[in-house]
């Protein structure tokens, strides 16, 4: 089944409408407190769980709070589009390659799993972030309160083990007023909490077709107010495509203490990986053999070998009327990155700290909170670039030290205005200094050193009108500020060193109107409409003389408009369904790059329509069966609209065998079949690739089996 052209939007809208109506009718007869939605649930809801021997039990859940906006707020008080998700236990066992599973099925979020460890996944929220060739741009990411987004706005996710992700919280839309640079959206990731046991040990192994093997081991302990956990995972990946093999060793841990007033946590993470990069294919090459690699990438032995280590500490002191939250992090990273015609050797050191003070206030007898915060971070990159002699280092072409200093201060106010009308307003000031020291100066290569400062004041304000305890209508006006990253500033089409003097930050102003509401106590629904205007949009391009190397420019104006809807509902006592629809019209409004205007053309890499449908059914002994469907419209690959990736539908099936205890040891089997229909599709696109090498084919049907063994000590 394929979707193409403007029919994609009609198809997706019809599907989500039909699914929503069907689910609503199915849930209408349910008692109000039968079961909650999977992750967007009412405060008084109850969710089916399973004990150590697989018997179903119901547990009362703590009230859900949204924390990504700077303070714990009830969903009905939040004037932004926010989604909460958790990965299923089967997914943690059998989907080790990317964050696709915990971010699956969130309206407005497009995660392109390239199945390429060297480049990582592309994460886009409402079209922001689509420009990136590797890593994540335009989206702020935090992992256990430690920033994964650097001061210059680029984000690396290589140190995150998808199997260790417990939950994610996503803010869709600009949020620079709270998070600063690169906050076209926010993703906050929480690791899976350790079991409530004095000591627990778990090991699992997954084996997939084509020789991919994952192994993990985790240990944890909890005593008094202290908890500690450590994990180690090893991945041997035999990729679907030629020249995409990888090895990946990750480790991490957390030590935390929760007292009466104080909470302290220290987290560490590290990764050592070696991955090849198959590159993009032309339409004809992809049609003949989707498993092939680019001849250019094979010639230059493209890929990435890297290490990444980081540590963070967070401290919170709470009181009746005020609280203080302080966080700090340090990071080290080294990358050896052969790309066509060049070999990049990059060493990075980064660190920063953030302090936020919350204070309750009651003007005119109305309870509200005010927050004041400051943060400072610094990044130092030692960048060397060598000419590539068919993948072997040749002459040194660039040698420079790049530094970024990011200082921000912000204020946030949350308070009721009249009756059930609530205000959330914020303003932030950012000052980002880029400095380059040129260390390769010759009579024919003058000093390219220098510095640039990029500043912004980012305000935002939102109003939420509560309808009952869990429903609301909201609107907001928000802004975003996004600088080019050091890699984008340093990689100039002219071949010169230093900082690109003509590349400017992009700035976004958006408005949004939305609503969220429960469905008879057995689910929830949300709908949002937004319009974002972008000035100086950052757009990638390649040169025919340097295929595989991306350069960047600013488009004069762009506009992102869209409609998003989510429905989550329990059907009976054992089946849960969730559907999400994303419709986006992302276009250039004014752009005169080169001889041809791009005005009116769609922004490449942004799918106009996307539909996700997830079904999960519980069975005895904690077993579960899951179906995930993703349908995506055709997607532009070039900003002139001359190339498109066809629409597609991909279906995945998973089965979790439940938990069985033998001699005090638990055993949990899982099996997954990805791309059940064996559809041909593009997992990702390379926007504006030279020589029409736009397409990165997704893998064919594959089977993965996994087995977990776990042991918990008896409570004391």
Walk me through this protein's architecture.
This protein is mostly beta strands and 716 residues long. The protein has a single domain (7-712), classed as TonB-dependent receptor, beta-barrel domain (Maltoporin, Chain A), CATH 2.40.170.20. 7% of the residues lie in helices and 55% in strands. The chain contains six helices and 36 strands. The protein has a 22-stranded antiparallel β-barrel. Strands 3-8-9-6-7 form a five-stranded mixed β-sheet, with no helix packed on it. The radius of gyration is 25 Å and the shape is globular.
CATH superfamily: TonB-dependent receptor, beta-barrel domain
- What is the makeup of the main sheet? 22 strands, antiparallel, barrel
CATH class: Mainly Beta
Low-confidence stretches: 1-63
* Terminal CA distance: 56 Å
Number of strands: 36
């Amino acid at each position: 089944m394929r979707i193409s052209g403007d029919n994609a939007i009609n198809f997706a809208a019809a599907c989500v409408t039909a699914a929503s109506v069907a689910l609503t009718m199915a849930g209408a007869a349910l008692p109000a407190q039968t079961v909650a939605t999977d992750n967007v649930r009412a405060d008084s809801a109850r969710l089916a769980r399973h004990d150590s021997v697989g018997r179903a039990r119901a547990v009362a859940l703590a009230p859900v709070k949204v924390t990504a906006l700077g303070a714990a707020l009830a969903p009905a008080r939040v004037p932004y589009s926010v989604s909460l998700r958790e990965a299923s236990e089967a997914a943690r066992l059998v989907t080790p390659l990317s964050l696709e599973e915990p971010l699956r099925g969130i309206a407005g979020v497009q995660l392109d799993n390239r199945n390429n460890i060297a480049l990582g996944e592309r994460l886009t929220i409402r079209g922001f972030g689509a420009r990136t060739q590797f890593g994540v741009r335009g989206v702020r990411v935090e992992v256990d309160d430690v920033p994964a987004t650097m001061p210059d706005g680029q984000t690396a996710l290589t140190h995150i083990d998808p199997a260790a992700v417990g939950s994610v919280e996503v803010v869709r839309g600009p949020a620079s007023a709270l998070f600063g640079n690169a906050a076209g959206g926010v993703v906050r990731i929480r690791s899976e909490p350790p079991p409530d046991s004095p000591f627990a040990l778990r090991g699992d192994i997954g084996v997939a077709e084509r020789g991919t093997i994952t192994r993990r081991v985790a240990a944890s302990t909890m005593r008094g107010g202290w908890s500690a956990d450590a994990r180690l995972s090893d991945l041997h990946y035999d990729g679907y495509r030629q020249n995409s093999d990888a090895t990946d060793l990750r480790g991490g841990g957390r030590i935390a203490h929760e007292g009466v007033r104080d909470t302290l946590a220290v987290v560490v993470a590290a990764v050592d990986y070696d991955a090849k990069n198959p590159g993009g294919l032309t339409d004809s090459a992809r049609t003949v053999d989707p498993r092939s690699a680019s001849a250019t990438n094979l010639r230059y032995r493209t890929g990435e070998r890297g290490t990444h280590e980081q540590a963070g500490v967070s401290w919170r002191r709470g009181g009746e009327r005020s609280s203080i939250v302080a966080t700090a992090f340090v990071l080290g990273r080294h990358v050896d990155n052969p790309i066509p015609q060049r070999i990049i050797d990059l060493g990075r050191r980064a660190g920063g700290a953030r302090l936020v003070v919350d204070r309750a206030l009651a003007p005119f007898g109305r309870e509200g909170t005010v927050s004041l915060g400051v943060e400072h971070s610094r990044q130092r990159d030692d960048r060397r670039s060598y000419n590539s002699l068919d993948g072997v280092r040749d002459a040194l072409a660039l040698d420079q030290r790049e530094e970024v200093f990011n200082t921000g201060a912000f204020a946030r106010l949350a308070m009721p205005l009249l009756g059930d009308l609530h205000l959330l307003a914020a303003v932030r000031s950012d000052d980002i200094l880029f400095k380059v020291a040129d260390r390769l100066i010759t009579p024919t290569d003058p000093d390219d050193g220098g510095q640039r400062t990029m500043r912004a004041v980012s305000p935002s304000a939102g109003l939420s009108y509560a309808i009952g305890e869990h429903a609301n209508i909201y609107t907001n006006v928000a802004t975003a500020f996004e600088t080019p990253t050091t890699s984008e500033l340093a990689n100039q089409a002219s071949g010169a060193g230093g900082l690109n003097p003509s590349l400017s930050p992009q700035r976004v102003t958006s408005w949004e109107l939305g609503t969220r509401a429960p469905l008879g106590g057995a689910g929830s629904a949300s709908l949002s409409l937004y319009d974002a205007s972008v000035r100086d949009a950052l757009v990638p391009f390649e040169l025919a003389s340097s295929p595989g190397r991306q350069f960047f420019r600013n488009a004069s104006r762009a506009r992102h408009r869209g409609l998003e809807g989510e429905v989550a509902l329990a059907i009976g006592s054992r089946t849960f369904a969730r559907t999400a629809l994303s419709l986006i019209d992302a276009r250039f409004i004014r752009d005169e790059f080169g001889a041809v205007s791009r005005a009116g053309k769609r922004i490449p890499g942004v799918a106009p329509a996307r539909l996700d449908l997830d079904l999960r059914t519980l069975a005895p002994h904690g077993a579960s069966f899951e179906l995930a469907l993703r349908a995506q419209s055709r997607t532009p690959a070039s900003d002139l609209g001359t190339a498109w990736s066809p629409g597609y539908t991909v279906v995945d099936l998973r089965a979790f065998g439940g938990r069985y205890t033998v001699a005090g040891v638990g055993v949990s089997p899982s099996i997954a079949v990805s791309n059940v229909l064996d559809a041909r599709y593009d997992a990702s696109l390379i926007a504006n690739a030279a020589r029409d090498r736009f397409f990165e084919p997704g893998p064919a049907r594959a089977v993965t089996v996994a087995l977990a063994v776990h042991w918990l000590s008896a409570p004391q």
